[in-house]
Amino acid sequence: MSVPFPRTRNSTLGYDVDEVDDFLAKARLAYDERNATSGAYTLTSDTVRHTAFTMQKGGYYAPAVDAALERLEDAFALRERDRAYQAAGDEAWFASARSRAAEILARLERPDGQRFRRAGFLRVGYNVKDVDAFTSYLTEYFRSGADVTVTDVRTVVFRSRRGGYSEAQVDAVLDAVVDVMLAVR
């Protein structure tokens, strides 16, 4: 029997094997659209992006599973883009993508230290300088097509800091950036 991902040692944590296998089986069905008539399981690129698995000793090696999930998210996003494009038509599709990009750019162009809500004086959030530096990089992507990849956005890591930016708000904007980047590929 073949294993879809390498496993960690029995003493090392990895993703729960049964959860990953179950999710991938459902993803395969959703992608093949065999469930379209039953409506049993709907999967979107957003669902894939926010999927999390519990950890277990001897589980699947997390970086290998994460890489597969990124490819799966890309496949679902491409399908969603094609469907939306066909339904809306050329002009409406590009107008929608430009509108979403403009909303994101308006947020990213705020002054340093004011781009996102703060986590609170005693709460830990993302380091403001780290986030502001990365959002400046993203601003150049939206303005002039700077070389930023979806992987860059997905894998960015910010240091923690008391009173930093709200992690939930920053993550939501980064998710929106990924959506736009996948939509215009």
Describe the 3D structure:
- The longest helix has 27 residues, at 62-88.
- This protein folds into two domains: 13-86, no CATH class; 89-183, no CATH class.
- A two-stranded antiparallel sheet has the order 1-2.
- With 185 residues, it is mainly alpha-helical.
- Helix 3 (62-88) packs across helix 4 and helix 4 (90-108) packs antiparallel against helix 5.
- The chain has helices at 17-32, 45-49, 62-88, 90-108, 128-144, 150-155, 167-183; strands spanning 13-15, 55-57, 124-126, 160-162.
List the helices and strands and how they pair.
Elements: E1 13-15, H1 17-32, H2 45-49, E2 55-57, H3 62-88, H4 90-108, E3 124-126, H5 128-144, H6 150-155, E4 160-162, H7 167-183
Antiparallel strand pairs: 1-2, 3-4
Strand order of the largest sheet: 1-2
Strand content: 5-15%
Mean of residue pLDDT values: 86
Overall, the morphology is flat
Q: Determine the structural class based on helices, strands and strand pairing.
A: mainly alpha
What's the domain count? 2
The poorly predicted ranges are 34-38
Q: Which sequence of SSEs, written as H and E, runs from N to C?
A: EHHEHHEHHEH
Contiguous helical run count: 7
How much helicity do the residues have?
55-70%
From the alpha-carbon coordinates, what is the Rg to the nearest angstrom? 19 Å
Sheet having the most strands: 2 strands, antiparallel
In whole angstroms, how far apart are the ends?
37 Å
- How many strands appear in the DSSP assignment? 4
Organism: Herbiconiux ginsengi
InterPro entries: CHP03543, DivIVA_domain
Protein name: DivIVA domain-containing protein
